[in-house]
């Protein structure tokens, strides 16, 4: 049997996530190679391309998409740049793994949905990597098997050690809680119908403009209630946990595992400092499955519809945050392409 050539991937955006995905495709993932990188910062693109044999560097996504070496795209530019890159990708009919968020707002997500529907087939997997985390996958299996009856509530914690300069309260919803929005929809297989945001007196460790932490509540189409503690300047590390409370039992993921030490009358362990080590295996699995599906000619995982639904809930969340009022979400009818 003739061997299938590796998938030539262009990585768009070579910052924190993009550079890590370049390393991942080059060193961890099978069946793919980094054919090109793109960054508006030419020096950064050149530096990242220089670490990979045969990798071209561009400053324009269109230039990479026009290259015969490029079979697929991994978009890791900032959210506001995703729509333009996705629409260009559709024009070249290229498969895409797009980092979350699909787009920063539902209007842009709808334009992406419409363009993908005009193409007539799915092309996009959205980078909601928790769906590929071993602990979250086990939690999903338990819920799907109905082992403990119907899920009634999810209790979620999402803590970041600190935020970069310029991180806003809205970003706590759009960049951070967007993961819990997708996790809730995926774990429960229900839509989020309303959002309420409560804001305790902020931590003195939070930057002056940031109302940190916040408690975000979701109501779902199946009558479940979900609470999310989002605390992005907790200072001590990165924690993502989720407990599902069902009719006859509960299941929890995200507890610290690994090495537990005992010394000098104390026991302890370490806490990862950010998402890169915490979700390293999930990112690896996500990209490997995308490559495998793409080489088989299929598209799997979170779709543009999931990206749109998440953006719509984020919009409601930002309104709820600003007004202090329970805010309902509005979704269009789900198009047949995403049934
Ligand atoms: N799944 C996850 O856990 C995480 C996902 N992300 C997502 O990954 C994406 C990138 O985030 P970071 O790497 O943290 O950002 P970053 O700021 O570190 O890197 C973004 C890079 O994109 C480049 N860029 C800006 N506009 C561009 C354009 N139009 N075309 C090409 N390159 C462009 C910038 O010069 C920069 O090098 C975002 O969508 C973000 O939400 C970020 C952190 C974690
Ligand atoms: O996606 C991510 C970041 O953009 C966001 O800023 C962090 O809060 C999340 O934990 C991380 O997974």
TrEMBL record:
Q: Which GO terms describe its molecular function?
A: inositol 2-dehydrogenase (NAD+) activity; nucleotide binding
- Its Enzyme Commission number(s) read 1.1.1.18
Q: Which residues form the Gfo/Idh/MocA-like oxidoreductase N-terminal domain?
A: 8-128
**Residues in GFO/IDH/MocA-like oxidoreductase domain copies:** 136-251
Q: Which UniProt keywords apply?
A: NAD, Oxidoreductase
Gene Ontology biological process terms from the UniProt entry: inositol catabolic process
- What does it catalyze? myo-inositol + NAD(+) = scyllo-inosose + NADH + H(+)
Check the record and name the PANTHER family matching this protein: INOSITOL 2-DEHYDROGENASE (PTHR43593:SF1), PTHR43593
Family according to the record:
Belongs to the Gfo/Idh/MocA family.
- Give a short account of what the protein does: Involved in the oxidation of myo-inositol (MI) to 2-keto-myo-inositol (2KMI or 2-inosose).
| Protein name stated in the entry | Inositol 2-dehydrogenase
Q: List the source organism.
A: Streptomyces buecherae
């Amino acid at each position: 049997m003739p061997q299938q050539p590796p998938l030539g991937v262009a990585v768009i955006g070579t910052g924190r996530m993009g550079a890590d995905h370049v390393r991942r495709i080059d060193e961890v993932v099978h069946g793919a190679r980094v054919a090109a990188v793109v960054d508006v910062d030419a020096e950064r693109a050149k530096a990242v391309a220089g670490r990979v044999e045969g990798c071209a560097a561009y400053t324009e996504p269109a230039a990479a998409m026009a290259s015969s070496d490029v079979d697929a795209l991994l978009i890791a530019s900032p959210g506001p740049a995703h729509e333009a890159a996705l629409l260009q990708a559709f024009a070249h009919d290229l498969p895409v793994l797009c980092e979350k968020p699909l787009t920063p707002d539902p209007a842009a997500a709808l334009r992406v949905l419409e363009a993908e529907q005009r193409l007539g087939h799915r092309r996009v997997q959205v980078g909601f990597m928790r769906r590929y985390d071993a602990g979250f996958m086990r939690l999903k299996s338990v819920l799907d098997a109905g082992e403990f009856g119907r899920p009634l509530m999810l209790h979620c914690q999402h803590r970041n050690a600190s935020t970069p300069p310029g991180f806003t309260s809205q970003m706590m919803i759009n960049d951070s809680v967007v993961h819990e929005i997708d996790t809730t929809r995926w774990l429960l297989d229900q839509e989020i119908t309303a959002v309420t945001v409560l804001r305790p007196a902020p931590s003195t460790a939070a930057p002056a403009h940031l109302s940190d932490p916040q408690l975000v509540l979701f109501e779902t189409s199946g009558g479940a209630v979900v609470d999310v503690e989002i605390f992005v300047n907790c200072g001590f590390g990165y924690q993502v946990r989720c407990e599902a409370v069902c009719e006859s039992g509960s299941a929890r993921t995200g507890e610290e595992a690994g090495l537990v030490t005992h010394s000098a009358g104390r026991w302890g362990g370490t806490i990862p400092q950010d998402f890169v080590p915490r979700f390293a295996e999930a990112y690896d699995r996500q990209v490997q499955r995308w490559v495998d599906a793409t080489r088989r000619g299929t598209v799997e995982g979170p779709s543009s519809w999931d990206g749109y639904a998440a953006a719509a809930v984020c919009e409601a969340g930002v309104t709820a945050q600003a007004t202090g009022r329970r805010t309902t979400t509005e979704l269009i009818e789900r198009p047949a392409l995403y049934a």
